[in-house]
Amino acid sequence: MVIPVLLGVTIIIFLITRVLAPDPAPVVLGEHATPDQMQAWRQDNGLADPIWLQYINFLGNALKGDLGHSYYTGAPVTQEIAARFPATIELAICAIILASIVGIALGVIAAVHKNKAADHVSMLIALIGVSMPIFWSGILLIIFFSGTLHVLPSSGRINPLLEPTGGTGFFIIDTIARGDWEALGDTLQHLILPTVALSLYSMAIITRMTRSSMLDTLNADYVRTARAKGLSKRIVNRKHALRNAMLPVTTVIGLQFGSLLGGAILTETVFSWPGIGKFTVDCVLKSDFPIIQGVVLLVAIIFVLINLIVDIVYAYLDPRIKYDTKDEG
Amino acid sequence: MSHNNLTATATMDGTALPVRKERRESLWHDIVDGVSSNKASLVSFWFIVALAVIAIVTKLFPQVLPFDPYTQDLSASLQAPSATHWFGTDIQGYDIFSRVLVGTQISLTVGFAAVAISLTIGVILGSIAGYKGGIADTVIMRIMDMMLAIPSILLAIAFMAAMGKGIEKAVIAIGLVAIPEYARIVRSEILSIKENDYVAAAHVIGDSNFAIVFRHVLPNVLPSIIVRATLGISSAILDTAALGFLGLGVQPPLAEWGSMLGIGRQYIFQEPWLMFFPGFAIMLTVLAFNLLGDGLRDGLDPKSRKR
User: Fold this and answer.
1) CB contact under 8 A, B246 and A281
2) Could you report the predicted ipTM of this complex, rounded to two decimals?
3) Which of A6, A77, B202, B250 could form a disulfide with B207 if both were Cys (CB 3.0 to 4.6 A apart)?
Protein backbone atom coordinates (compact mmCIF):
# COMPACT_ATOMS: atom_id res chain seq x y z
CA MET A 1 0.00 0.00 0.00
CA VAL A 2 2.91 2.37 0.69
CA ILE A 3 4.05 2.70 -2.93
CA PRO A 4 0.59 3.29 -4.52
CA VAL A 5 -0.28 5.89 -1.85
CA LEU A 6 2.99 7.75 -2.40
CA LEU A 7 2.55 7.53 -6.15
CA GLY A 8 -0.94 8.97 -5.71
CA VAL A 9 0.47 11.77 -3.55
CA THR A 10 2.88 12.71 -6.34
CA ILE A 11 -0.05 12.85 -8.79
CA ILE A 12 -2.16 14.99 -6.41
CA ILE A 13 0.63 17.43 -5.69
CA PHE A 14 1.61 17.52 -9.36
CA LEU A 15 -1.94 18.30 -10.40
CA ILE A 16 -2.17 21.06 -7.80
CA THR A 17 1.14 22.74 -8.58
CA ARG A 18 1.34 22.21 -12.35
CA VAL A 19 -2.26 22.05 -13.58
CA LEU A 20 -4.31 24.02 -11.07
CA ALA A 21 -1.64 26.66 -10.46
CA PRO A 22 -1.19 29.51 -12.91
CA ASP A 23 2.01 29.87 -14.91
CA PRO A 24 4.75 30.73 -12.38
CA ALA A 25 6.94 32.51 -14.95
CA PRO A 26 5.44 36.02 -14.49
CA VAL A 27 5.58 35.65 -10.70
CA VAL A 28 9.17 34.45 -10.61
CA LEU A 29 10.59 36.72 -13.34
CA GLY A 30 8.50 39.76 -12.47
CA GLU A 31 6.06 41.72 -14.56
CA HIS A 32 8.75 43.35 -16.69
CA ALA A 33 10.03 40.08 -18.17
CA THR A 34 9.54 39.72 -21.93
CA PRO A 35 7.57 36.78 -23.39
CA ASP A 36 10.83 35.37 -24.80
CA GLN A 37 12.50 35.49 -21.42
CA MET A 38 9.52 33.75 -19.86
CA GLN A 39 9.50 31.03 -22.52
CA ALA A 40 13.24 30.49 -22.05
CA TRP A 41 12.74 30.22 -18.30
CA ARG A 42 9.89 27.70 -18.78
CA GLN A 43 12.10 25.58 -21.01
CA ASP A 44 14.96 25.72 -18.50
CA ASN A 45 12.62 24.51 -15.78
CA GLY A 46 10.94 21.82 -17.87
CA LEU A 47 7.60 23.63 -17.84
CA ALA A 48 7.32 23.92 -21.64
CA ASP A 49 6.82 20.15 -22.07
CA PRO A 50 3.38 18.52 -22.19
CA ILE A 51 2.05 17.93 -18.68
CA TRP A 52 2.27 14.11 -18.86
CA LEU A 53 5.93 14.36 -19.89
CA GLN A 54 6.57 16.80 -17.04
CA TYR A 55 5.10 14.24 -14.63
CA ILE A 56 7.15 11.35 -16.02
CA ASN A 57 10.29 13.47 -15.79
CA PHE A 58 9.40 14.52 -12.25
CA LEU A 59 8.76 10.93 -11.19
CA GLY A 60 11.89 9.60 -12.91
CA ASN A 61 14.03 12.27 -11.27
CA ALA A 62 12.31 11.81 -7.88
CA LEU A 63 13.20 8.10 -7.96
CA LYS A 64 16.82 9.15 -8.39
CA GLY A 65 16.49 11.51 -5.42
CA ASP A 66 16.25 14.65 -7.55
CA LEU A 67 13.17 16.74 -6.72
CA GLY A 68 14.10 19.64 -8.97
CA HIS A 69 15.48 23.07 -8.18
CA SER A 70 14.11 26.12 -6.40
CA TYR A 71 12.82 28.70 -8.89
CA TYR A 72 14.57 31.43 -6.93
CA THR A 73 17.83 30.15 -5.47
CA GLY A 74 18.41 27.49 -8.12
CA ALA A 75 19.55 25.18 -5.33
CA PRO A 76 18.37 21.53 -5.41
CA VAL A 77 15.09 21.05 -3.53
CA THR A 78 16.56 18.13 -1.60
CA GLN A 79 19.42 20.34 -0.42
CA GLU A 80 17.06 23.17 0.61
CA ILE A 81 14.84 20.74 2.52
CA ALA A 82 17.73 18.78 4.06
CA ALA A 83 19.16 22.02 5.50
CA ARG A 84 15.91 22.70 7.38
CA PHE A 85 14.60 19.21 7.99
CA PRO A 86 16.46 18.48 11.28
CA ALA A 87 15.03 21.65 12.86
CA THR A 88 11.47 20.52 12.14
CA ILE A 89 12.00 16.91 13.15
CA GLU A 90 13.75 17.91 16.38
CA LEU A 91 10.81 20.14 17.27
CA ALA A 92 8.21 17.54 16.26
CA ILE A 93 9.93 14.76 18.23
CA CYS A 94 10.14 16.94 21.37
CA ALA A 95 6.47 17.88 20.91
CA ILE A 96 5.26 14.30 20.47
CA ILE A 97 7.28 13.18 23.52
CA LEU A 98 5.79 15.96 25.64
CA ALA A 99 2.29 15.36 24.25
CA SER A 100 2.55 11.62 24.92
CA ILE A 101 3.88 11.92 28.48
CA VAL A 102 1.41 14.60 29.59
CA GLY A 103 -1.46 13.23 27.49
CA ILE A 104 -1.16 9.68 28.81
CA ALA A 105 -0.72 10.93 32.40
CA LEU A 106 -3.79 13.18 32.19
CA GLY A 107 -5.81 10.45 30.48
CA VAL A 108 -4.94 7.87 33.13
CA ILE A 109 -5.66 10.31 35.96
CA ALA A 110 -9.00 11.18 34.36
CA ALA A 111 -9.98 7.53 33.91
CA VAL A 112 -8.90 6.38 37.37
CA HIS A 113 -10.69 9.33 38.98
CA LYS A 114 -13.69 9.21 36.66
CA ASN A 115 -16.29 11.92 37.32
CA LYS A 116 -14.17 13.50 40.05
CA ALA A 117 -12.43 16.87 40.01
CA ALA A 118 -9.23 15.46 38.46
CA ASP A 119 -11.26 13.99 35.60
CA HIS A 120 -13.08 17.25 34.94
CA VAL A 121 -9.86 19.29 35.03
CA SER A 122 -8.09 16.87 32.66
CA MET A 123 -11.01 16.92 30.25
CA LEU A 124 -11.20 20.70 30.40
CA ILE A 125 -7.50 20.93 29.52
CA ALA A 126 -8.10 18.49 26.65
CA LEU A 127 -11.07 20.47 25.41
CA ILE A 128 -9.16 23.73 25.43
CA GLY A 129 -6.22 21.97 23.76
CA VAL A 130 -8.32 20.90 20.76
CA SER A 131 -10.08 24.25 20.49
CA MET A 132 -7.12 26.61 20.78
CA PRO A 133 -5.55 27.65 17.49
CA ILE A 134 -1.96 26.41 17.57
CA PHE A 135 -0.63 29.81 16.50
CA TRP A 136 -2.61 31.63 19.15
CA SER A 137 -1.30 29.43 21.97
CA GLY A 138 2.20 30.14 20.64
CA ILE A 139 1.55 33.87 20.67
CA LEU A 140 0.16 33.76 24.23
CA LEU A 141 3.21 31.80 25.40
CA ILE A 142 5.50 34.38 23.80
CA ILE A 143 3.59 37.29 25.35
CA PHE A 144 3.73 35.72 28.81
CA PHE A 145 7.11 33.98 29.01
CA SER A 146 9.14 36.21 26.70
CA GLY A 147 7.36 39.57 26.82
CA THR A 148 6.24 39.66 30.45
CA LEU A 149 8.49 37.32 32.44
CA HIS A 150 11.51 37.55 30.10
CA VAL A 151 12.53 34.00 30.99
CA LEU A 152 12.45 32.26 27.59
CA PRO A 153 13.42 33.31 24.08
CA SER A 154 10.60 34.08 21.65
CA SER A 155 12.19 33.14 18.36
CA GLY A 156 14.93 31.19 16.64
CA ARG A 157 16.55 27.86 17.40
CA ILE A 158 19.71 28.88 19.22
CA ASN A 159 21.87 31.93 19.90
CA PRO A 160 23.74 32.26 16.55
CA LEU A 161 27.06 32.61 18.42
CA LEU A 162 26.57 29.17 19.97
CA GLU A 163 25.26 27.39 16.87
CA PRO A 164 27.05 24.08 16.25
CA THR A 165 28.31 23.83 12.68
CA GLY A 166 28.42 20.56 10.77
CA GLY A 167 27.12 17.56 12.69
CA THR A 168 23.66 16.10 12.28
CA GLY A 169 21.70 19.34 12.31
CA PHE A 170 19.86 18.08 15.40
CA PHE A 171 21.18 20.59 17.90
CA ILE A 172 20.43 18.50 20.99
CA ILE A 173 22.52 15.64 19.62
CA ASP A 174 25.25 17.89 18.23
CA THR A 175 25.71 19.91 21.41
CA ILE A 176 25.77 16.77 23.59
CA ALA A 177 28.25 15.09 21.23
CA ARG A 178 30.57 18.07 21.61
CA GLY A 179 30.01 18.41 25.32
CA ASP A 180 28.97 22.04 24.71
CA TRP A 181 26.61 22.36 27.67
CA GLU A 182 26.07 26.07 27.26
CA ALA A 183 24.82 25.55 23.69
CA LEU A 184 22.70 22.61 24.85
CA GLY A 185 21.08 24.77 27.53
CA ASP A 186 20.42 27.50 24.99
CA THR A 187 18.96 24.96 22.52
CA LEU A 188 16.63 23.58 25.18
CA GLN A 189 15.54 27.07 26.20
CA HIS A 190 14.65 27.88 22.60
CA LEU A 191 12.80 24.58 22.27
CA ILE A 192 10.50 24.95 25.27
CA LEU A 193 7.87 27.39 23.98
CA PRO A 194 7.50 26.01 20.43
CA THR A 195 7.39 22.48 21.82
CA VAL A 196 4.62 23.35 24.27
CA ALA A 197 2.64 25.25 21.62
CA LEU A 198 2.98 22.46 19.05
CA SER A 199 2.18 19.69 21.52
CA LEU A 200 -1.07 21.11 22.96
CA TYR A 201 -3.42 19.78 20.29
CA SER A 202 -1.85 16.30 20.18
CA MET A 203 -1.72 16.25 23.99
CA ALA A 204 -5.46 16.86 24.08
CA ILE A 205 -6.20 14.09 21.58
CA ILE A 206 -3.92 11.62 23.43
CA THR A 207 -5.56 12.55 26.76
CA ARG A 208 -9.04 11.85 25.40
CA MET A 209 -7.97 8.60 23.77
CA THR A 210 -6.11 7.36 26.86
CA ARG A 211 -9.05 8.14 29.11
CA SER A 212 -11.53 6.39 26.87
CA SER A 213 -9.25 3.40 26.34
CA MET A 214 -8.42 3.14 30.07
CA LEU A 215 -12.13 3.20 30.95
CA ASP A 216 -12.66 0.29 28.55
CA THR A 217 -9.90 -1.79 30.10
CA LEU A 218 -10.79 -0.85 33.68
CA ASN A 219 -14.22 -2.37 33.07
CA ALA A 220 -12.78 -5.52 31.50
CA ASP A 221 -13.16 -8.91 33.18
CA TYR A 222 -9.42 -9.53 33.49
CA VAL A 223 -8.98 -6.31 35.46
CA ARG A 224 -11.80 -7.30 37.81
CA THR A 225 -10.21 -10.74 38.14
CA ALA A 226 -6.82 -9.22 38.94
CA ARG A 227 -8.43 -7.10 41.66
CA ALA A 228 -10.40 -10.07 42.96
CA LYS A 229 -7.27 -12.15 43.39
CA GLY A 230 -5.93 -9.46 45.72
CA LEU A 231 -3.60 -7.33 43.60
CA SER A 232 -3.39 -3.72 44.64
CA LYS A 233 -5.34 -1.15 42.63
CA ARG A 234 -2.10 0.55 41.64
CA ILE A 235 -0.51 -2.58 40.22
CA VAL A 236 -3.71 -3.54 38.41
CA ASN A 237 -4.01 -0.06 36.93
CA ARG A 238 -0.42 0.00 35.80
CA LYS A 239 0.27 -3.57 34.72
CA HIS A 240 -3.11 -4.77 33.56
CA ALA A 241 -5.21 -1.79 32.56
CA LEU A 242 -2.67 0.73 31.28
CA ARG A 243 -0.67 -1.76 29.24
CA ASN A 244 -3.73 -2.90 27.34
CA ALA A 245 -5.14 0.60 27.12
CA MET A 246 -1.93 1.66 25.36
CA LEU A 247 -2.78 -0.25 22.19
CA PRO A 248 -5.17 2.28 20.62
CA VAL A 249 -3.18 5.12 22.17
CA THR A 250 -0.11 3.97 20.21
CA THR A 251 -2.04 4.38 16.97
CA VAL A 252 -3.18 7.84 17.96
CA ILE A 253 0.35 8.91 18.89
CA GLY A 254 1.59 7.73 15.50
CA LEU A 255 -1.14 9.59 13.67
CA GLN A 256 -0.53 12.68 15.76
CA PHE A 257 3.10 12.78 14.68
CA GLY A 258 1.87 13.27 11.13
CA SER A 259 -0.48 16.03 12.19
CA LEU A 260 2.36 17.66 14.16
CA LEU A 261 4.25 18.09 10.89
CA GLY A 262 1.24 20.07 9.63
CA GLY A 263 1.07 22.04 12.88
CA ALA A 264 4.79 22.75 12.63
CA ILE A 265 4.05 25.05 9.68
CA LEU A 266 2.14 27.36 12.02
CA THR A 267 4.37 26.95 15.07
CA GLU A 268 7.51 27.62 13.04
CA THR A 269 5.97 30.77 11.60
CA VAL A 270 5.05 32.06 15.07
CA PHE A 271 8.47 31.28 16.57
CA SER A 272 10.55 32.09 13.45
CA TRP A 273 11.81 28.52 13.72
CA PRO A 274 14.12 27.81 10.79
CA GLY A 275 12.50 24.53 9.73
CA ILE A 276 10.68 23.29 6.65
CA GLY A 277 7.32 24.60 7.86
CA LYS A 278 8.27 28.26 7.86
CA PHE A 279 10.26 27.69 4.67
CA THR A 280 7.16 26.22 2.98
CA VAL A 281 5.07 29.26 3.84
CA ASP A 282 7.80 31.54 2.46
CA CYS A 283 7.89 29.46 -0.74
CA VAL A 284 4.09 29.46 -1.07
CA LEU A 285 4.09 33.25 -0.91
CA LYS A 286 6.68 33.26 -3.75
CA SER A 287 5.05 30.44 -5.81
CA ASP A 288 8.24 28.35 -5.55
CA PHE A 289 6.38 25.18 -6.54
CA PRO A 290 9.30 22.67 -6.70
CA ILE A 291 9.92 23.28 -2.99
CA ILE A 292 6.21 22.86 -2.17
CA GLN A 293 6.13 19.59 -4.14
CA GLY A 294 9.22 18.37 -2.31
CA VAL A 295 7.91 19.26 1.14
CA VAL A 296 4.49 17.67 0.56
CA LEU A 297 6.10 14.52 -0.79
CA LEU A 298 8.54 14.33 2.12
CA VAL A 299 5.80 14.83 4.71
CA ALA A 300 3.63 12.19 3.00
CA ILE A 301 6.55 9.72 3.02
CA ILE A 302 7.09 10.34 6.74
CA PHE A 303 3.37 10.01 7.41
CA VAL A 304 3.07 6.72 5.52
CA LEU A 305 6.22 5.32 7.14
CA ILE A 306 4.95 6.25 10.59
CA ASN A 307 1.69 4.44 9.88
CA LEU A 308 3.73 1.40 8.90
CA ILE A 309 5.81 1.63 12.09
CA VAL A 310 2.63 2.03 14.16
CA ASP A 311 1.25 -1.16 12.61
CA ILE A 312 4.44 -3.02 13.48
CA VAL A 313 4.54 -1.64 17.04
CA TYR A 314 0.86 -2.51 17.42
CA ALA A 315 1.59 -6.10 16.44
CA TYR A 316 4.46 -6.15 18.94
CA LEU A 317 2.33 -4.78 21.77
CA ASP A 318 -0.70 -6.97 21.09
CA PRO A 319 0.11 -10.64 21.78
CA ARG A 320 -2.99 -11.73 19.84
CA ILE A 321 -1.59 -10.30 16.63
CA LYS A 322 1.73 -12.04 17.21
CA TYR A 323 -0.07 -15.30 17.94
CA ASP A 324 -2.04 -15.01 14.69
CA THR A 325 1.12 -14.35 12.73
CA LYS A 326 2.83 -17.40 14.21
CA ASP A 327 -0.22 -19.47 13.53
CA GLU A 328 -0.28 -18.46 9.92
CA GLY A 329 3.45 -19.00 9.53
CA MET B 1 -44.23 -3.30 -7.76
CA SER B 2 -43.34 0.29 -7.30
CA HIS B 3 -42.16 1.81 -4.12
CA ASN B 4 -45.35 3.83 -3.89
CA ASN B 5 -47.40 0.66 -3.97
CA LEU B 6 -45.47 -0.72 -1.06
CA THR B 7 -46.03 2.45 0.90
CA ALA B 8 -49.74 2.43 0.10
CA THR B 9 -50.09 -1.23 1.05
CA ALA B 10 -48.24 -0.77 4.19
CA THR B 11 -50.25 2.30 5.02
CA MET B 12 -53.36 0.22 5.22
CA ASP B 13 -52.08 -1.60 8.24
CA GLY B 14 -51.07 1.71 9.68
CA THR B 15 -47.35 1.15 10.09
CA ALA B 16 -45.19 2.03 7.11
CA LEU B 17 -46.25 5.58 6.34
CA PRO B 18 -45.62 6.90 9.82
CA VAL B 19 -42.22 5.19 9.80
CA ARG B 20 -40.48 7.89 7.80
CA LYS B 21 -42.19 10.63 9.76
CA GLU B 22 -41.32 8.82 12.97
CA ARG B 23 -37.74 8.46 11.85
CA ARG B 24 -37.54 12.18 11.18
CA GLU B 25 -39.18 12.97 14.49
CA SER B 26 -36.91 10.49 16.22
CA LEU B 27 -33.80 12.07 14.68
CA TRP B 28 -35.00 15.51 15.71
CA HIS B 29 -35.83 14.18 19.15
CA ASP B 30 -32.35 12.64 19.48
CA ILE B 31 -30.74 15.92 18.44
CA VAL B 32 -32.77 17.95 20.94
CA ASP B 33 -32.26 15.30 23.60
CA GLY B 34 -28.51 15.08 23.02
CA VAL B 35 -28.01 18.83 23.13
CA SER B 36 -30.40 19.63 25.97
CA SER B 37 -29.21 16.81 28.26
CA ASN B 38 -25.67 18.17 28.15
CA LYS B 39 -25.36 21.59 29.79
CA ALA B 40 -22.12 22.54 28.02
CA SER B 41 -23.63 21.53 24.73
CA LEU B 42 -26.78 23.54 25.34
CA VAL B 43 -24.80 26.65 26.29
CA SER B 44 -22.68 26.15 23.17
CA PHE B 45 -25.77 25.88 21.02
CA TRP B 46 -27.09 29.22 22.28
CA PHE B 47 -23.62 30.75 21.95
CA ILE B 48 -23.54 29.70 18.28
CA VAL B 49 -27.05 31.11 17.81
CA ALA B 50 -25.79 34.38 19.31
CA LEU B 51 -22.81 34.38 16.94
CA ALA B 52 -25.15 33.81 14.00
CA VAL B 53 -27.35 36.69 15.17
CA ILE B 54 -24.28 38.93 15.50
CA ALA B 55 -23.13 37.94 12.01
CA ILE B 56 -26.53 38.63 10.45
CA VAL B 57 -27.24 41.85 12.36
CA THR B 58 -23.79 43.34 11.69
CA LYS B 59 -24.20 42.47 8.01
CA LEU B 60 -27.70 43.91 7.63
CA PHE B 61 -27.42 46.79 10.05
CA PRO B 62 -23.73 47.76 10.27
CA GLN B 63 -24.78 50.98 12.00
CA VAL B 64 -25.23 49.02 15.26
CA LEU B 65 -21.44 48.67 15.44
CA PRO B 66 -19.70 51.30 17.58
CA PHE B 67 -17.26 52.04 14.70
CA ASP B 68 -17.12 51.22 11.01
CA PRO B 69 -14.83 48.16 10.88
CA TYR B 70 -13.54 49.21 7.45
CA THR B 71 -12.84 52.89 8.06
CA GLN B 72 -9.28 53.78 8.99
CA ASP B 73 -8.64 56.36 11.67
CA LEU B 74 -4.90 56.89 11.80
CA SER B 75 -5.33 59.44 14.61
CA ALA B 76 -6.60 56.57 16.79
CA SER B 77 -3.85 54.12 15.80
CA LEU B 78 -2.74 51.41 18.30
CA GLN B 79 -4.86 52.51 21.23
CA ALA B 80 -5.16 50.26 24.26
CA PRO B 81 -8.61 48.96 25.28
CA SER B 82 -10.67 51.81 26.72
CA ALA B 83 -14.27 52.93 27.23
CA THR B 84 -14.29 54.22 23.65
CA HIS B 85 -12.49 51.32 21.99
CA TRP B 86 -13.36 48.30 24.15
CA PHE B 87 -10.80 46.00 22.51
CA GLY B 88 -8.38 48.77 21.45
CA THR B 89 -7.39 49.71 17.90
CA ASP B 90 -4.84 48.38 15.40
CA ILE B 91 -2.10 50.19 13.50
CA GLN B 92 -4.57 51.64 11.01
CA GLY B 93 -6.93 52.78 13.72
CA TYR B 94 -9.52 50.08 13.01
CA ASP B 95 -11.69 49.38 16.06
CA ILE B 96 -10.85 45.81 17.13
CA PHE B 97 -14.19 45.24 18.89
CA SER B 98 -16.16 46.08 15.73
CA ARG B 99 -13.85 43.91 13.64
CA VAL B 100 -14.10 40.96 16.04
CA LEU B 101 -17.90 41.19 15.80
CA VAL B 102 -17.84 41.46 12.01
CA GLY B 103 -15.34 38.58 11.95
CA THR B 104 -18.20 36.23 12.89
CA GLN B 105 -19.57 36.76 9.36
CA ILE B 106 -16.48 35.35 7.68
CA SER B 107 -15.77 32.58 10.19
CA LEU B 108 -19.31 31.22 10.15
CA THR B 109 -19.72 31.64 6.39
CA VAL B 110 -16.43 29.93 5.60
CA GLY B 111 -17.08 27.25 8.24
CA PHE B 112 -20.51 26.34 6.90
CA ALA B 113 -19.60 26.75 3.21
CA ALA B 114 -16.44 24.64 3.48
CA VAL B 115 -18.35 21.90 5.31
CA ALA B 116 -21.09 22.07 2.65
CA ILE B 117 -18.47 21.37 -0.02
CA SER B 118 -16.73 18.53 1.82
CA LEU B 119 -20.05 17.09 2.98
CA THR B 120 -21.63 17.06 -0.48
CA ILE B 121 -18.66 15.58 -2.31
CA GLY B 122 -17.72 13.29 0.61
CA VAL B 123 -21.25 11.88 0.91
CA ILE B 124 -21.48 11.26 -2.85
CA LEU B 125 -18.08 9.57 -3.02
CA GLY B 126 -18.63 7.61 0.21
CA SER B 127 -22.06 6.46 -1.00
CA ILE B 128 -20.71 5.25 -4.33
CA ALA B 129 -17.77 3.51 -2.65
CA GLY B 130 -19.86 1.88 0.06
CA TYR B 131 -22.91 0.97 -2.00
CA LYS B 132 -21.35 -0.03 -5.32
CA GLY B 133 -18.22 -1.61 -3.86
CA GLY B 134 -15.76 -3.29 -6.24
CA ILE B 135 -13.51 -1.19 -8.40
CA ALA B 136 -15.36 2.08 -7.62
CA ASP B 137 -14.78 1.49 -3.90
CA THR B 138 -11.11 0.67 -4.42
CA VAL B 139 -10.40 3.68 -6.63
CA ILE B 140 -12.31 6.21 -4.50
CA MET B 141 -10.94 5.03 -1.17
CA ARG B 142 -7.35 4.84 -2.44
CA ILE B 143 -7.65 8.46 -3.59
CA MET B 144 -8.99 9.33 -0.13
CA ASP B 145 -6.01 7.49 1.45
CA MET B 146 -3.66 9.52 -0.70
CA MET B 147 -5.27 12.78 0.43
CA LEU B 148 -5.13 11.65 4.04
CA ALA B 149 -1.39 11.03 3.72
CA ILE B 150 -0.89 14.79 3.52
CA PRO B 151 -1.66 16.85 6.67
CA SER B 152 -4.82 18.82 5.90
CA ILE B 153 -3.32 22.24 6.59
CA LEU B 154 -0.36 21.47 4.30
CA LEU B 155 -2.74 20.31 1.56
CA ALA B 156 -4.88 23.43 2.04
CA ILE B 157 -1.73 25.58 1.81
CA ALA B 158 -0.73 23.80 -1.41
CA PHE B 159 -4.21 24.50 -2.85
CA MET B 160 -3.96 28.15 -1.83
CA ALA B 161 -0.50 28.37 -3.39
CA ALA B 162 -1.98 27.14 -6.65
CA MET B 163 -5.30 28.98 -6.59
CA GLY B 164 -4.18 32.27 -5.07
CA LYS B 165 -5.41 34.11 -2.00
CA GLY B 166 -8.97 35.09 -1.13
CA ILE B 167 -12.03 34.02 0.80
CA GLU B 168 -13.67 31.92 -1.96
CA LYS B 169 -10.45 30.05 -2.58
CA ALA B 170 -10.00 29.45 1.15
CA VAL B 171 -13.49 27.95 1.27
CA ILE B 172 -12.70 25.63 -1.64
CA ALA B 173 -9.30 24.60 -0.26
CA ILE B 174 -10.63 23.90 3.24
CA GLY B 175 -13.68 22.13 1.81
CA LEU B 176 -11.63 19.91 -0.48
CA VAL B 177 -9.13 18.74 2.12
CA ALA B 178 -11.89 17.49 4.45
CA ILE B 179 -13.64 15.33 1.82
CA PRO B 180 -11.90 12.06 2.83
CA GLU B 181 -13.23 12.25 6.40
CA TYR B 182 -16.86 12.33 5.22
CA ALA B 183 -16.29 9.79 2.48
CA ARG B 184 -14.81 7.33 4.99
CA ILE B 185 -17.60 7.76 7.53
CA VAL B 186 -20.37 7.44 4.94
CA ARG B 187 -18.73 4.43 3.29
CA SER B 188 -18.26 2.52 6.52
CA GLU B 189 -21.84 3.24 7.66
CA ILE B 190 -23.26 2.23 4.30
CA LEU B 191 -21.31 -1.01 4.30
CA SER B 192 -23.20 -2.12 7.39
CA ILE B 193 -26.56 -0.51 6.52
CA LYS B 194 -26.78 -2.09 3.07
CA GLU B 195 -26.81 -5.54 4.66
CA ASN B 196 -30.16 -4.79 6.33
CA ASP B 197 -33.34 -6.55 5.25
CA TYR B 198 -35.12 -3.33 4.35
CA VAL B 199 -32.47 -2.57 1.73
CA ALA B 200 -32.86 -6.05 0.29
CA ALA B 201 -36.64 -5.52 0.31
CA ALA B 202 -36.26 -2.26 -1.60
CA HIS B 203 -34.19 -4.14 -4.17
CA VAL B 204 -36.88 -6.78 -4.49
CA ILE B 205 -39.62 -4.23 -5.15
CA GLY B 206 -37.52 -2.77 -7.93
CA ASP B 207 -36.23 0.48 -6.46
CA SER B 208 -33.29 1.95 -8.33
CA ASN B 209 -29.91 2.12 -6.63
CA PHE B 210 -30.23 5.90 -6.52
CA ALA B 211 -33.61 5.67 -4.79
CA ILE B 212 -32.38 3.06 -2.33
CA VAL B 213 -29.37 5.15 -1.35
CA PHE B 214 -31.40 8.35 -0.96
CA ARG B 215 -34.56 6.90 0.60
CA HIS B 216 -33.27 4.07 2.73
CA VAL B 217 -29.52 4.27 3.25
CA LEU B 218 -28.52 7.94 3.59
CA PRO B 219 -31.25 8.82 6.13
CA ASN B 220 -29.66 6.23 8.40
CA VAL B 221 -26.21 7.71 7.90
CA LEU B 222 -27.55 11.17 8.78
CA PRO B 223 -26.79 11.03 12.53
CA SER B 224 -23.08 10.32 11.94
CA ILE B 225 -22.95 13.00 9.25
CA ILE B 226 -24.56 15.61 11.51
CA VAL B 227 -22.05 14.92 14.29
CA ARG B 228 -19.08 14.95 11.91
CA ALA B 229 -20.28 18.11 10.15
CA THR B 230 -20.63 19.97 13.46
CA LEU B 231 -17.08 19.04 14.45
CA GLY B 232 -16.04 19.75 10.85
CA ILE B 233 -17.21 23.35 11.15
CA SER B 234 -14.84 23.87 14.07
CA SER B 235 -11.95 22.42 12.03
CA ALA B 236 -12.90 24.61 9.07
CA ILE B 237 -12.95 27.72 11.27
CA LEU B 238 -9.51 26.80 12.67
CA ASP B 239 -8.11 26.18 9.17
CA THR B 240 -9.56 29.47 7.90
CA ALA B 241 -7.91 31.30 10.77
CA ALA B 242 -4.64 29.45 10.13
CA LEU B 243 -4.62 30.40 6.44
CA GLY B 244 -5.54 33.99 7.32
CA PHE B 245 -2.76 34.08 9.93
CA LEU B 246 -0.21 32.88 7.37
CA GLY B 247 -1.36 35.57 4.96
CA LEU B 248 -2.69 32.98 2.50
CA GLY B 249 -6.41 33.10 3.19
CA VAL B 250 -8.82 35.98 3.62
CA GLN B 251 -6.96 39.19 2.86
CA PRO B 252 -7.00 42.46 4.81
CA PRO B 253 -8.79 44.80 5.17
CA LEU B 254 -11.54 42.13 5.42
CA ALA B 255 -12.11 41.50 9.11
CA GLU B 256 -11.09 37.87 9.61
CA TRP B 257 -9.86 36.71 12.99
CA GLY B 258 -6.83 34.78 11.71
CA SER B 259 -5.58 37.57 9.49
CA MET B 260 -6.12 40.06 12.35
CA LEU B 261 -3.78 37.90 14.43
CA GLY B 262 -1.28 37.71 11.57
CA ILE B 263 -1.15 41.50 11.26
CA GLY B 264 -1.12 42.09 15.01
CA ARG B 265 1.86 39.76 15.41
CA GLN B 266 4.20 42.56 14.44
CA TYR B 267 3.18 44.37 17.64
CA ILE B 268 3.14 41.31 19.86
CA PHE B 269 5.00 42.87 22.77
CA GLN B 270 3.85 46.47 22.44
CA GLU B 271 0.13 45.86 21.81
CA PRO B 272 -0.79 42.35 23.00
CA TRP B 273 -4.54 43.09 22.87
CA LEU B 274 -4.29 42.92 19.07
CA MET B 275 -3.56 39.22 19.60
CA PHE B 276 -5.78 38.51 22.54
CA PHE B 277 -9.31 39.32 21.35
CA PRO B 278 -9.36 37.77 17.85
CA GLY B 279 -7.66 34.64 19.21
CA PHE B 280 -10.16 34.40 22.03
CA ALA B 281 -12.99 34.73 19.52
CA ILE B 282 -11.59 31.85 17.45
CA MET B 283 -11.13 29.67 20.53
CA LEU B 284 -14.62 30.27 21.91
CA THR B 285 -16.26 29.63 18.55
CA VAL B 286 -14.29 26.43 17.94
CA LEU B 287 -14.92 25.32 21.52
CA ALA B 288 -18.67 25.89 21.07
CA PHE B 289 -18.83 23.77 17.91
CA ASN B 290 -16.74 21.04 19.56
CA LEU B 291 -19.01 20.95 22.62
CA LEU B 292 -22.13 21.00 20.45
CA GLY B 293 -20.67 18.13 18.43
CA ASP B 294 -20.05 16.17 21.65
CA GLY B 295 -23.65 16.72 22.74
CA LEU B 296 -25.00 15.68 19.35
CA ARG B 297 -22.86 12.55 19.44
CA ASP B 298 -24.29 11.66 22.83
CA GLY B 299 -27.79 12.00 21.42
CA LEU B 300 -27.29 10.52 17.98
CA ASP B 301 -24.60 7.92 18.42
CA PRO B 302 -24.97 6.20 21.77
CA LYS B 303 -22.21 3.73 20.90
CA SER B 304 -19.54 6.40 21.02
CA ARG B 305 -21.07 8.21 23.97
CA LYS B 306 -18.52 9.77 26.25
CA ARG B 307 -18.58 8.13 29.61
Assistant:
1) yes
2) 0.87
3) B202
